Amino acid sequence: MEFGLCPSVTLQQLFDPSGVAVVGASDTEGKIGYEAMANAVAFDGPVYPVNPSGEGELFGREFVASVTEIDGDVDLALCCVPGPAVPDVLEECGEAGIGAAVIYASGFAEAGEKGEELQEATVAVADEHDISLLGPNTSGFIVPALDLRCSFASGAEEIPAGNIAVVAQSGGVGLVLAFQARRQGRGVSAEVGLGNRANVGFAEAIEYFDGDEKTDAIVLHIEGTDDGRRVLEACRASDTPVIAYKVGQSDVGDFAESHTGALTGDHELYTAGFAQYGAPTVDATDDLLDAAAALGNSPEPDGPNVGVVTAQAGPGIIITDRIQRAGGRLPELTADTQETIDEILPGITYADNPVDTGRPMPAFGDIVTAVAEDERVDIVLVYELFEASIGYPIETLDGLAERVGKPVLFASEGIEEDLAEERAKLEAAGIPYFPTPERAADAAGALARYAKLHDDAVADGGIAALDADADGREVSRDE
Fold this sequence. Notes:
Blueprint: H1 12-15, E1 20-23, H2 32-40, E2 47-50, E3 57-58, E4 61-62, E5 76-79, H3 86-96, E6 100-103, H4 113-129, E7 132-134, E8 140-143, E9 148-151, E10 161-168, H5 171-183, E11 188-193, H6 202-210, E12 217-222, H7 228-237, E13 242-246, H8 253-260, H9 267-276, H10 285-296, E14 306-310, H11 313-325, H12 335-344, E15 355-356, H13 364-372, E16 379-385, H14 394-397, H15 400-404, E17 408-413, H16 416-428, E18 433-434, H17 437-459
Parallel strand pairs: 1-2, 1-5, 5-6, 6-7, 10-11, 10-12, 12-13, 14-15, 14-16, 16-17, 17-18
Antiparallel strand pairs: 3-4, 8-9, 8-11
């Protein structure tokens, strides 16, 4: 449950601090205070282990008894202390001028009445001193480009920098997405586990990452919130594309509330709300990252019409079916485009949309260009099984999306070691890559839904507020 918001507090101190204090740092391996310090020391800035019982050094940094005794700039405190000690720690942070804190401990609003009282007391101290709080009950956050690893999670150092900001209600899901992004060769601009959202919630995170130059797409994992309206308004106001994964289609209310204090509410209201406020929703973590890669690495599509070029008919049929079920449309190509295609490859297997060339060939890139230049096409999806003797049409694809002002997605399959170099060239050219026809089609569908949602917003003169469903129930209701 979100207890209060601190609009006057900047999140700059949280996600881009001058220095970090690890409060409750420990030299005992396995303790949160040890693991958090082990990750934090990678930061290219001062990192201070804080513990009145600490002696000597930890990871080459000398222990300090209190944050008030630190001689240097510190914006961020990582609180590796039990929940009941948190308000006192925050009082000291306030005295020291520290403007942001991560609270790892559980036992707050998710744990019943006494926990709610502790969270209220914690927020009251934070409000008094203008401190941004991530958590409680969180695994923290990671900003790979800054080597800022404010998490106790193992493997945080292996998550590469990318352009997708992951904002998850669950720190566990946030890390799942970050590790998936690594496996997919994408990386993240940030991975944030909001936890109980004491005074930093979805809206604050969306607003911050919308202004972050390292972020080109924002993904949300959301279990529930009692501030749904403000979250939706932040999605609407964001110039950076936002994609949401709202879990809880079945009844997980009690479990979710015990996890992060989430009020799950009506799933259909949430998905309708996100749609009305311009944020497409998906139903899986892979889909979330694929949609973000497509939206974050492409020009914004003008509409939902997808032009498909495939070198093999079977995958093309899968893509055609999947795109239409995912919200896209496959328009008939113009007569001029079909004539151009016929001139390039007379007797082509299928010259309308999708265009089926039968197999890759040297002129494959010219076919893609012809479809991309078609005035009826808003999004281009290309599929070909990898053939080493031909490779991918890199020279044609490089810069094509920017020239035509349309997303160009590419999907392929083959022996990974054989196609790795060509795939790297595609990604260097800014072409989103997908390993299966289904994932590529779903990403194209997300682009199509995004374009349709934003086109409807313009047509309506702005997205109308989602006040209530037919029964008068609000998305942001407190049940």
